[in-house]
Amino acid sequence: MGVDRTEYVRRPCLCGEGELVVNYCTPDHPFANSDAYHWELFLECDICNGEYVFIDQDQQAVIASRTEIAARQTARQEYLERSRALMSRDDVRAYLSQLIALVISQPSAAAKHRVFTRAGMTVDSEATFRRSLKAVGDERIVQQSAAPHNLSRIMTILEVKNEEISNELEVLKALELKSKEPCRPVIDPVCVLTKEAFYNS
Ligand SMILES: [Zn+2]
After folding, report:
1. Are residues 46 and 109 in the same domain?
2. How far is the CA of 179 from the centre of ligand 1 (A)?
């Protein structure tokens, strides 16, 4: 499957030895979704490439430092590892068993849906939830839906307190924020990455 590229931006890089290139790309094969498009961002300079990355950030083409990108990736990695460790702790597993028992004891699928909604474990409608429940069963649906971001609500529902877990959840929240924080552009954003901006250029 081919791609149609149109050059949108070409200008000198930061050091002036190379170039920044942005292409607007659309699929050029039949049956393609006519709205489909994507961007290609190139930092064509060996010197700048050592220090910077050219990225699409919040619909802007931005030059960010590699150090900042790496710090976010490290935070993301640590978040994933600590999340896994947290969810496999004995006390957390025990809470999930209690939650499974609570879900099983509910008189109806509607009541189960209310528990899940209160716990922040689903945003599905009752009908959709009912279908998933039927497909996977009480135990698995709890295990699949429980995660660090809803653990504190689960603990509230079970009326348990655990300072160690609460502290760890704070650490996780900070790591997640860090991993999603936008990078500071090293220079002013190079261009706006929207279809409108491209067609008006
Ligand atoms: Zn350069």
Report:
1. no
2. 27
Predicted TM-score of the model (pTM): 0.79
- Return the closest-CA partner of residue 138 out of 158, 115, 161: 115
Query: pLDDT truncated to tens, each residue of the chain (201 aa)?
Result: 688 999 999 999 999 999 999 999 998 877 767 788 999 999 999 999 999 999 999 999 999 999 999 999 999 999 999 999 999 999 999 999 999 999 999 999 999 999 999 999 999 999 999 999 999 999 999 999 999 999 999 999 999 999 999 999 999 999 999 999 999 999 999 999 999 999 998
- Inside any domain, residue 100: yes
Report how far ligand 1's centroid is from the alpha carbon of 57 (Å).
20
Same structural domain for residues 189 and 172? Answer: no
Whether residues 54 and 135 share a domain: the answer is: no
CA angle 198, 200, 201 (to 5 degrees): 65
* Å from CA of 13 to ligand 1 middle: 5
Cα of 192 vs centre of ligand 1, distance in Å, is: 21
